[in-house]
Amino acid sequence: MVAVGLFSWLAETPVYRDLHLDAARLAHPTAPGEQWIDVGCGPGLITRDAARRGYDARGIDRSPRMIAEATRLANRHRSPARFEVGDARHLTPVSADVVFAASLLYVVPDPAETAAVLWNAVRPGGALIVVETTAAMTPAAVRQLDTRTWSGRDRRAVSLWALARQGRALDPTTFPALSQAETAYHPLLSGLVGAWVFRQPGSASDSGGGARE
Q1: How far apart are CA 73 and CA 43, in angstroms?
Q2: What is the pTM of this model?
Q3: What is the per-residue pLDDT across 74-89, written as a single tens digit (0 to 9) for each?
Q4: Structural domains of the chain sorted by starting position, each given as residue range(s) with its CATH number in brackets
Q5: Could you tell me if 129 and 98 are in contact, meaning their C-beta atoms sit under 8 angstroms apart?
Q6: What is the pLDDT of residues 29-40, one digit of tens each?
Q7: What is d(CA 140, CA 118) in angstroms, rounded to the nearest whole number?
Q8: Whole-angstrom Cα distance, residue 29 to residue 103?
Q9: H/E stretch holding 128
Q10: What's the farthest any 2 CA atoms get from each other in the chain?
Q11: 113 near 173, Cβ under 8 Å?
């Protein structure tokens, strides 16, 4: 339960929580019935947020204990978000309007293969949002940040994150499945974290979805 407790603690740390919520809001405004899949959902922060914004939101994670925690938190927050044990490599093609993956590609055995599966799950007109630390995420860089408004918990969380990554990063745009996609990059946390938005061509009507705003 150490990992579950750690990730739950991180998800409720203001700076960590807010940068992921900012990344999630890079998706298009939802239309009725649109599907959101949060892959590697952890304790379900983003899945619950997507459900709150009107998406039919589903979180998947390989850890049964993490899914149990995400379900517990969803019940506590009275969220309609759904959670299930699952593997990123086994997503159904063309199954969601938004696929969200935070701190996932860095830890899977074959990031390029996983990126291809995530991309294939996005419906026409939909988006894949990838959130990962960048090469700038180092303990030295964290010490240079203006943290006057941060809590002690914020400082501890980001310092631990930087210590774990030590500037080791990946660039999702180098993966063959994503290299030709329409891409937008958004720096977060002074560039220590990045959010990449990859958009599928087409429109929601191509796959039977609702009209977009």
Answers
A1: 7
A2: 0.91
A3: 999 999 999 999 988 8
A4: 2-200 (3.40.50.150)
A5: yes
A6: 878 789 999 999
A7: 33
A8: 23
A9: strand 122-133
A10: 49
A11: no
